[in-house]
Amino acid sequence: MAYVVGWVLVLLLLALWSSLVWAVQSFLAGLLAHAGSVSSGGWNLPDSLRDWLPTALADWLVSTVETLSPQLQGLVNALPSLSGGVTVLAWVVWVLGALVLLVFGLAIHVGVALWRKSRHSTPPSAVSAP
Who contacts 24 (Cβ-Cβ below 8 Å, separation ≥6)? Predict the structure, then answer.
């Protein structure tokens, strides 16, 4: 049972990690896709991201992006591959995090196995010498 609990914990952390990486990738892709291409007041967060954020935070992000829009457009013009590289970067970061979680799961598994082994092992009985 303890093995299952450990792996369920790892799977829940992996789901949380995947959601976090997906949200950041979605935000950055939307940011770079719209940077400098719309006038003030015309930029919006993707609906999938706006649903997860508090309204005040979403409004702050939109206003910050609109303020930095000319600089971001200059950056996108200078490095055109940056826009497409966000997805690649998100996958690399996700894989690294998933590997860390896998190692964490293996450590829990080995730890539980060692704990069970030490718990079920009986100390050698003392043999009296005649």
Answer: 90
pLDDT digits (tens, 9 = 90+) for 54-91: 888 888 888 887 787 777 767 666 555 566 788 889 99
Residues 6+ apart with CB under 8 A from 13: 101, 104
Helices (H), 35-80: 47-50, 55-78
pLDDT in tens, 88-110: 899 999 999 999 999 999 999 99
Q: What is the pTM of this model?
A: 0.62
61/71 Cα distance (integer angstroms): 15
Domain boundary assignment for the chain: 2-120
Give which of 19, 20, 24, 27 is closest to 65, Cα–Cα: 27
For residue 100 the two structure tokens come to 């860390």
Dihedral in degrees, nearest 10, Cα atoms 111, 112, 117, 118:
70
> What's the half-sphere exposure (Cβ side, CA atoms, 13 Å) at 67?
6
What is d(CA 86, CA 119) in angstroms, rounded to the nearest whole number? 49
